[in-house]
Amino acid sequence: MKKLRVAILGSGNIGTDLLIKIQRSEFLECVLFIGRNLSSPGMAKAISMGVKVSDESIRAIEKDPDAVDLVFDATSAKDAAHHWAILEKLGKIVVDMTPAKLGGLCIPAVNLDEAMKQKNVNMITCGGQASIPMAYVIGKTQKDVEYIEVVSSIASRSAGPATRLNLDEYVDTTEMGLSIFSKVKKTKAILNLNPADPCIDMQTTIFAQVDNPDMEALKKEVDIMIESIRNYVPGYSLLVSPIYENGRIVIMVKAQGLGDYLPKYAGNLDIINCAAIAVAEQYSRVQNGIN
């Protein structure tokens, strides 16, 4: 089997954690780790692992496009738009970790096969990866859902500069994903940065306004979805099984990280990284003719 050659654009926390996860994948090989500062902690980690690094940003790929099959963009929504304009012309597959909404939205447990038709796959947001699967099963099992709202709480220490810079994009992209996957027009996404010490794990609560819920069908589909997500996000779990109160369905989930590069409480970063790797590994399977 030929491993898919990948590059990581962005040497921050997300990019570095991605690198560690990729290096233990049987389907992927990181051939280039790209940032802007060779003395950053992420660059130092990559060098210590024997991975080729560059501080030339997107130019590193432009110089040698044939060395890379797929690019993870772990920068910012603004930078991702600039990068995609170049990478599209080079014919590269891009897994976008930013809320840039440039390509097809992907939740691996829901539409992984459909995502394989895209050259640019957007991983939405961390809150989207946690909440949209539950919104999807609500839309699948319930009639006349009027409104869905999701509230994610993450440790403030796990929200880096790019996350804080993209908060507006986070809300817009998460709400769009909720609406597309659940087929509910009215949605709302809220992100709370919790400064508590010790740091909290990521928790997400999903609320859905429904008049006559089918709770038996919902609970069955939620259990199936939880197990499907745990195949690629081991730290994903159900905190509160679906309940119905005051005219709304309530579900609560938790995401705890694997502790590869980031602390285990940074499940918000871990869930989107694990989802992105699930997408890249599927590309590798397709190219190798593995079902």
Structural features, described:
With 291 residues, the protein is of the alpha/beta class. It has helices spanning 13-23, 41-48, 59-63, 77-89, 108-115, 126-141, 161-165, 167-182, 215-230, 267-287; strands at residues 4-9, 28-34, 53-54, 70-73, 93-96, 104-105, 120-122, 147-155, 187-194, 202-209, 236-245, 248-255. The strands form two sheets. The chain has a seven-stranded parallel β-sheet, with helices on both faces. A five-stranded mixed β-sheet has the order 9-8-10-12-11. The longest helix is centred in the last third of the chain and has 21 residues, at 267-287. The chain is globular and about 60 Å long.
Summary, kept brief:
With 291 residues, this protein is of the alpha/beta class. The chain has helices spanning 13-23, 41-48, 59-63, 77-89, 108-115, 126-141, 161-165, 167-182, 215-230, 267-287, and strands at 4-9, 28-34, 53-54, 70-73, 93-96, 104-105, 120-122, 147-155, 187-194, 202-209, 236-245, 248-255. Helices cover 41% and strands 24% of the residues.
Element layout with pairings:
Layout lengths: L3 E6 L3 H11 L4 E7 L6 H8 L4 E2 L4 H5 L6 E4 L3 H13 L3 E4 L7 E2 L2 H8 L4 E3 L3 H16 L5 E9 L5 H5 L1 H16 L4 E8 L7 E8 L5 H16 L5 E10 L2 E8 L11 H21 L4
Parallel strand pairs: 1-2, 1-4, 2-3, 4-5, 5-7, 6-7, 8-9
Antiparallel strand pairs: 8-10, 10-12, 11-12
What attributes does this structure have?
291 residues; alpha/beta; five-stranded mixed beta sheet; globular
Task: Return the average pLDDT rounded to an integer.
Answer: 96
Shape: globular
- CA-to-CA gap between the ends? 13 Å
Number of strands: 12
Q: Structural class of the helices, strands and pairings?
A: alpha/beta
Alpha-carbon Rg, integer? 19 Å
